[in-house]
Amino acid sequence: MSSIDVSVGPPATTARLSQAGTFAVVAALVVLFMAAAGAPTPLYVVYQKNWGFSATTLTVVFAVYVAGLLASLLVVGGLSDHVGRRPVLAAAIALEATSFVLFLVAGGVPMLLVARVLQGLATGAAITTLSAALVDSVPAHRPGRAGVVNSVAPVSGLAVGALGAGALVEYAPAPTHLVYAVFLALFVLGGIAVAAMPETSARRSGAVGSLRPVLAVPARIRIEVLALVPILLASWSLGGLFFSLGPSVAADVLGLHNHLVGGLVVGLLCVPGALTSLLLRSWPVERLVVVAALLLAVGTASAVVGVDAGPAVLGVVGTVVAGIGFGAAALGTFGTYARIAAPHERGALFAVAYTISYLAFSVPAVAAGLATTAVGLRPTTVGYGIVVVALGIVALVAQWLVAARRRAARPALS
Predict the structure, then answer these.
(1) Which of 121, 124, 159 is CA-nearest to residue 31?
(2) What is the pTM of this model?
(3) Largest CA distance in the chain
(4) pLDDT, tens digit, for every residue of 41-73?
(5) Residue from 142, 193, 186, 192 nearest 21 by CA
(6) Residues of 211-243 as b/e, b for ≥16 C-beta within 10 angstroms?
(7) Are the beta carbons of 62 and 247 closer than 8 angstroms?
């Protein structure tokens, strides 16, 4: 299929990517943005050692990224539905590149905070636009592929970013600079790729009005969206634990000081999650969410026991099991969103989904950082894990209630 077939704007005067090429570029950009988001994780303990700040400051560094991301989601989450996908992506890439320049020159916590805020703003603008662009450009004969990529690519990106950064920090020179130089170069290439993409969403009026920070879900899909909130809370709050305190737990509680191990801690959650999203892509989403809730609860409980009482291998196994649940949750939730949203609703709906997800990702993690300073890392980790287990149980109950509602509605519809 030529690029003219998929462009909704005016006829192209220069060569554009094909529909398949556009889908591949958008998927790669999802991985890249999420890898960039995960890259600073192994560096937190380096910054903490070099600059001598507390666990509370560490979680503030983590939290300002999410604050910027949420602000961006709330303000520009639906903008690409009005002005098109390409302008929003171009602006997000430029802002992300700026943040990496600031990372490169950072000499203390203030500049690090500014860089993380800018990175959050860029990621929030990009991630909903990319999610919508995936659905726009998905091959007609494989409509489910957008949901699969929307679940596999973010988790894969987080794992790649954390593992790659951990390896560079441990084994390469200039540990607080080389990682960011690599990502800066990759985002320059990403900008070139966006310039070659066709526009996949028609421009429509209301761009200024869309900037009002209003979160809303169309009434016709509200029940399906609300039913997935508990599993979003369970899975993303678990992710917040690993990305904020995971490397510190490995170093201070388990005595593993290799920086690659800090990335592996994240990888133990994200790699099984990505593989699960890929392997279970043909499962019904209702079954996926139930399995995800069960595995998140069981896996997190096992990981907590391993951290608190040992053996450490139980913590590893529990993390892998929870990671499988993490991937199943992503596949089930975002697969549903890709299916139920109309084209003009996609950007705004993904903004709602990511707002819920990142609130769950950040708020408990910040609370955990404060608790770590007050009561210590091990008790905080155990308490946090118990909360995640409880959320997994709530998600199971929510799915049981939704299934009962469906069963009750069938006779009335027949």
Answers:
(1) 159
(2) 0.72
(3) 68
(4) 778 778 887 888 776 777 788 778 888 888 887
(5) 193
(6) eeeeeebeeebeeebebbbbbbbbbbbbbbbbb
(7) no
Residue 115 has pLDDT above 70, yes or no: yes
Contact status, residue 110 vs residue 61, Cβ threshold 8 Å: no
Residues in Cβ contact with 271 at an 8 Å cutoff, skipping those fewer than 6 apart = 159, 323
